[in-house]
């Protein structure tokens, strides 16, 4: 949990896969995605597709990266009350 007044932002290198991870800092030669916390959360949870979030201004990135995110994060829409 974050402390009041502490920002959630920053630079991270994120890997999606069987072993997903987020590490502080940016690795050179990787594409960059600029995102609000809310926009990234909605993308990661699968509730909104990457290209739709660019329309709302919640994420910005190279088109190739956005397309790859849409393919790799193509999840069913979340439903309230799902049992995990």
List the helices and strands and how they pair.
Layout: E1 12-15, E2 21-24, E3 33-35, H1 37-44, H2 50-56, E4 59-61, H3 63-72
Antiparallel strand pairs: 1-2, 3-4
User: What is the beta-strand fraction?
Assistant: 15-25%
Residue ranges: pLDDT <50 for 5 or more in a row? none
DSSP, total strands: 4
Characterize the largest beta sheet: strand count, sense, and whether it forms a barrel. Answer: 2 strands, antiparallel
Q: Cα-atom Rg, whole angstroms?
A: 14 Å
Query: What is the share of helical residues?
Result: 25-40%
Shape: globular
User: What is the rounded distance between the termini?
Assistant: 23 Å
Mean pLDDT: 83
Compressed to H and E, one letter per element, the order equals EEEHHEH
Order of strands, widest sheet: 1-2
SS content category:
alpha+beta
Total helices: the number is 3
